[in-house]
C-alpha cells in the first residue's frame, strides 16, 4: 500500500492529500481513482505557484519524482533518451548534451533561478504548455518524440503535435509523459539556443530561438529553426529553413533568415514583457546569432573537436 499523508503548505492553500506511488502504473491508477481533483507533481515549479495563487486547488497530489526510470538520461543507438523527471540542472551539466544537442543544455541553463533549475523537470516544462517554455524550441528543432503513458498503455507523440494551444496539450485524462526521445543527430550537426529576457524578474523569455544545421562544403545542407515566446505555440519556421538550404552561412544570409523568422512570429498583443513590434525586432538578431553558433559548432563537430 502506498503511503499517504495530508499536507498543506500554508493556510492560504487548500488542504490536499499527498500520494506516493511505487511505480508509474500505480501513479496512473491513483489518478484514475481520484478523478479530476488529482494532479501529478514532480519538481513543483509550475503547479505550486498555481496553487498559492488559487488558480488550481487539487484535492490530492501524486508524487512522480521518486519513481524509478523517470529520471534516466542516456544515449541508446545514437538516440538521446530523457526521462520526464530529469531536471534542468541535469540536462545543463550532462556530457550527453554538450555535442550535437547543445541547444538543449543552453535552454535548460538559460533558466535564471538556480532553485528552478535544480527542481524543475523536463516533463513539467512541457506538460503545462506555457508559451515561454524554454525546452520547446530545441525539442522541435531536434524532432523529438514523447512517450506518453496512460491506462491504455504507451503511445508516441511527436513534439510538434503535443501542444495544441497555449496551456493545452494532447495529453488525455490521466496520462503522463514518461520519456522524451531525440533521434540520432545528423552527421556534423551543430545546434544553439538563444533567448532574450527582461533584466529583472524570473528570466522568462521575451523571445527565444533554437537552431540546428549541417554544413556541406561550406554551404548549409539542412537547417531547423524553431521559435518560442513570440508565438502562441512554439513552432518551426519552414520558410526560413528552406531559404537557408544551399547557401553559405554568411552574415547577410543569416540576417535574412532572421527577418523571415520575425515575419513568422505572432506575438501576443498586451504582453507585459514586450510589445509585438519589439519581439519581432529582437527575433532577427536572435535567429542570426543562433544560426551562427550552430554553424560554428557544425564545423567543430565535422573536424572532430566537439
Structure characterization notes:
This protein has three domains: 4-63, Uridine Diphospho-n-acetylenolpyruvylglucosamine Reductase, domain 2, CATH 3.30.43; 73-182, 2-Layer Sandwich (Uridine Diphospho-n-acetylenolpyruvylglucosamine Reductase, domain 3); 190-299, CO dehydrogenase flavoprotein, C-terminal domain (Enolase-like, domain 1). Helices cover 32% and strands 26% of the residues. It contains ten helices and 15 strands. It has helices spanning 24-34, 47-52, 88-93, 102-109, 114-119, 122-127, 136-141, 238-244, 251-264, 276-302, and strands at residues 4-7, 16-19, 38-41, 60-63, 73-76, 79-83, 145-150, 153-158, 163-165, 168-169, 176-182, 190-197, 205-216, 219-228, 235-236. The strands form four sheets. A five-stranded antiparallel sheet has the order 5-6-11-7-8. A hairpin with a 2-residue loop joins strand 13 (205-216) and strand 14. Helix 8 packs antiparallel against helix 9 and helix 9 crosses helix 10. The chain starts with a strand and ends with a helix.
Briefly summarize what is shown.
With 306 residues, this protein is an alpha+beta fold.
What is this structure's SSE topology?
Layout: E1 4-7, E2 16-19, H1 24-34, E3 38-41, H2 47-52, E4 60-63, E5 73-76, E6 79-83, H3 88-93, H4 102-109, H5 114-119, H6 122-127, H7 136-141, E7 145-150, E8 153-158, E9 163-165, E10 168-169, E11 176-182, E12 190-197, E13 205-216, E14 219-228, E15 235-236, H8 238-244, H9 251-264, H10 276-302
Parallel strand pairs: 2-4, 3-4
Antiparallel strand pairs: 1-2, 5-6, 6-11, 7-8, 7-11, 9-10, 12-13, 13-14, 14-15
